[in-house]
Design goal:
CATH topology: outer membrane lipoprotein receptor (LolB), chain A
CATH class: Mainly Beta
Shape: globular
Distance between the termini: 74 Å
Number of strands: 13
Low-confidence stretches: 5-19, 245-255
Oligomer: single chain
Strand order of the largest sheet: 6-5-4-3-2-1-13-12-11-10-9-8-7
Number of helices: 4
Mean pLDDT: 87
Length: 255
């Protein structure tokens, strides 16, 4: 009776494990771990402030503004110069003083894709169906010694993101994005850690991003020092400035 008993236990364990490893269930666990979908939806805007270190050499202050459903503006400042990139839900624009361009300019569709892909406050897993994405579970993969669950998210625009969830807490620890920019295949690897609660929802306060294939290379490390939810944000904060040359910089972010 011992061998059949052990076989039954093994079958039961395999069946239970297989049932647990479905894409829908993993997403549900991730959303529950973050605080729940209702609390995520309750955050209609999010402002993050902190430090950005580039290549371990330069340190800038940064501010990120997100407004539901898909508006985003990022600012990085050093020595009174502020780089701005924004997405208003339809098109993207930027001010690039570090490259000698102090006037706002429209970004190409390819350059805007990474901004648009990261615009949703809840990330790629919350409301993935409503966003027009498709989802597939690809098993586990070793991420720095952790057998993380791997989800493939195909976005509505065709870009692909691989999301890795910690097997114990089901929080996102890595995201690998694949997109094509001006005919070049770009791979961006983002590692997340130091989760903190904001209005009942956990967000990573430390993010390290490495870009490969874009020509820029290097590593960017974001450290959030302050996070505020549901801050009033006018649409003009994200929209292309009505008149170029009016000094749109950080002043627009103070509204």
């Amino acid at each position: 009776m011992r061998i059949p008993f052990l076989l039954c236990v093994a079958v039961l364990l395999v069946t239970t494990s297989a049932h647990a490893l479905t894409a829908d269930e993993l997403v549900a666990k991730n959303l529950d771990a973050r605080g729940g979908l209702d609390k995520i939806h309750a955050i209609t805007s999010l402002k993050l402030e902190g430090r950005l270190r580039i290549g371990g050499q330069f340190e800038l202050s940064f501010a990120s503004y997100q407004k539901a459903p898909d508006l985003v503006r990022n600012e990085a400042t050093i020595q009174s110069l502020t780089q701005i990139q924004a997405w208003d839900g339809k098109e993207a624009w930027q001010i690039s003083p570090f490259q000698g361009r102090r006037e706002p300019e429209k970004m190409s569709d390819d350059d805007a894709r990474s901004l648009a892909d990261d615009a949703a406050i809840g990330g790629p897993l919350a409301d993935w169906k409503a966003q027009g994405s498709t989802l597939a579970y690809l098993g586990t993969e070793d991420i720095d010694g952790t057998r993380a669950h791997k989800l493939k998210v195909t976005l509505k625009n065709g870009d692909i993101e691989y999301v890795y969830l910690d097997p114990d807490y089901f929080l996102e620890i890595r995201r690998v994005s694949q997109l094509t920019v001006r005919g070049t295949h770009v791979k961006m690897v983002a590692d997340y850690s130091d989760y903190e609660r904001v209005n009942g929802v956990y967000f990573p306060f430390s993010t390290t991003i490495e870009s490969k294939g874009s020509g820029d290379g290097g590593t960017q490390q974001f450290t959030v020092e302050k996070a505020t939810a549901n801050v009033p944000m006018d649409h003009s904060l994200f929209a292309f400035p009505a008149s170029a040359g009016t000094g749109h910089g950080t002043e627009g972010a103070k509204r």
